[in-house]
Amino acid sequence: xxxxxxxxxxxxxxxxxxxxxxxxxxxxxxDLHKLGAVKGMMGPPSLEDYxxxxxxxxxxxxxxxxxxxxxANPFVPLGMTATVFFLSNGLRQMVKRNSLKSQQMMRGxxxxxxxxxxxxxxxxxxEVLKYGKNDDNKEK
Length: 140
Known about the structure:
By secondary structure, the chain is mainly alpha-helical. The chain folds into two domains: about 10-40, no CATH class; about 60-140. The chain contains five helices and two strands, in the order ββααααα. Strands 1-2 form a two-stranded antiparallel sheet. Strand 1 (about 10) and strand 2 (about 15) form a beta hairpin. Helix 4 runs antiparallel to helix 5. It is elongated, with a radius of gyration of 36 Å.
């Protein structure tokens, strides 16, 4: 092997030897050269090849999502509203030292919470039954 064929010898007689692209590719292992994994990776990317990614924000706003969920299962917001009503009135009666009315409001709150849980589970079961039938029809 002569001095010009030795790629490891960069400096010869005080001058740096610049290798061509083809010489660099020849030095690579055969499997990389065969795959062509390095041929396109010489040098930094050019600005002409740059294409910015356009992001579109298709997300719904909080209010749109809230309205959609309330339309899907209207009994849950109804139960939540009743719970807040009974809780606030029960606390107000407790501050007024009206223990009988406060106790009634707290029992109403428990019932309203139970109604909300039943509405959540019922809505979930309805959705599973509704979309479960559609999935079975698609498979057939």
